[in-house]
Amino acid sequence: MALRRSPGAHAAGFLVGAPPTHNVSDWIPTMLIPSSGTEVTQMMMDDVEDAGYIKIDLLGLRSLATVRRCLELIGKDGLDWIPLDDKETFKFLRKGNSETGIFQLEGYTAAKGCREVKVKTVDDLILVNALYRPATRDSGYVDLFHHNRDNRGSISYPHPIFKNHLQETFGVPCFQEQVLGILRDLGMPVAELNAFLKAVKGKHAKGGYSDESTAIFVNNKRRFEALCKDKEMTDEQTEEAWELVEGFAAYGFNRAHATAYSLLGYQMAYLKTHHSVQFHAALLETSVGTTKEDQYVKETRRVGVPVLGACINRSAVLWAIDPSGRAIRKGLSSIKGVGPKAADAIVASAPYESVDEIIDRCPAKSVTGGKSWKTDGTLSGVLESLRKAGALKAVGVMP
Q1: Cα-based distances in Å from 196 to 202, 220, 239, 244, 291
Q2: Which of 101, 261, 265, 363 could form a disulfide with 105 if both were Cys (CB 3.0 to 4.6 A apart)?
Q3: By residue range, what is the domain housing residue 135?
Q4: Rounded-to-integer distance, Cα 295 and Cα 300, Å
Q5: Are 370 and 364 spatial neighbours (Cβ–Cβ below 8 Å)?
Q6: 116 and 249 share a domain?
Q7: Same domain, 222 and 153
Q8: Which tens digit of pLDDT belongs to each residue from 254-275?
Q9: Distance in angstroms (rounded) separating the CA atoms of residues 298 and 138
């Protein structure tokens, strides 16, 4: 019996409730996680679905907030105006810079994929999103893809059905839809397709197989072999076909996911390429307080957008475009020791000509450090944090 160290909550899974007269807890055992105030089921996500309930994954993406803010800064509404064949955008992606702030295309693996695939179209990006994932790389499918692409005239398929579905990706199953199509054309009823893939995928699940799941796996393999035999495939062809299907189950991605991810990634890359100041201002504004903030500051400088320090009279609460329109200035809330309330209060009463004006206009509860200044001319609290960051230069106080 598996022992659980502590309860956990699915990152984005929401269970659809019963009619308004009933709570989810009327039908499924639930519990409260005190630290977050989250009510969760006491059943695993797969068990909930097997029991007939509907689980929906709702993901919150910071990238969408970044895009929305960038569009506001540009003065545009929606993304329909962005062309999907911009050469400069694909040139940027082919360079494979890692910490770029581009949804699903930043980081070493995806950046390497853009370089190696030599992306020139959105379809290429869709392929990168599906293929360049850890399990794919570990299983050798990335290497097989490039080998087959370079030797496309010598690719062999276990049966014409496989060629029909895998020719576009050079004999490598990259999308769930390809494998589902193969199984369907081999003769597997549509109603059995998802159950079959789930059983095969179970072999690669953490924790290994139970006796029951092993039996399910073996039965499904026999079912697959029988379908291949009906198509007059040899034992060797059947084994080759099985290896393709089983290997895909270790990393399978569906085209719908890859397409949605790639479109958003491309649109962000376009904004970064053609509206760099606005894009990086939005990127930094929506990344305040995250582990990515410092990395994005470096990236902003790398692409040639000046990054200005915080200033008591010029900074906004968050990162913002400087009035010159050619640089980005650090927001007061990005200074360590200056919280959002203090930053709000300071910005609301700016500009200032002296420290005394800051103390007189801002509430001492949120902008601390005024008492020591009035007493002995030293700074502490929020005011000292502002001094250390160089934000008080405008009122004659050096860091």
Answers
A1: 10, 6, 17, 14, 40
A2: 265
A3: 79-255
A4: 9
A5: yes
A6: yes
A7: yes
A8: 899 899 999 999 999 999 999 9
A9: 31
**C-alpha distances out from residue 127 to 119, 152, 154, 268, 321, Å:** 9, 17, 21, 18, 35
Q: What's the rounded Cα separation, in Å, for the pair 57 and 128?
A: 23
Q: Phi/psi of residue 203, each to 5°?
A: -65, -30
Residues 136 and 216 occupy one common structural domain: yes
CA 71 to chain centre: 20
Nearest to 115 by CA among 94, 87, 145, 136: 94
Q: Cα angle at 340 between 339 and 346, to 5 degrees?
A: 95
For residue 328, give the H/E element and its range. strand 328-329
pLDDT tens-digit readout, 282-337: 999 999 988 889 999 999 999 999 999 999 999 999 999 998 899 999 999 999 99
Same-domain check for residues 226 and 91: yes
How far is the first Cα of the chain from the last one, in angstroms, to the nearest whole number?
Answer: 60
Q: Which residue, among 132, 136, 171, 173, has the nearest Cα to 154 in the 3D structure?
A: 171
Name residue, tokens 């990152």: 11
Q: Judging by DSSP bridges, how do beta strands 328-329 and 307-308 pair with one another?
A: parallel
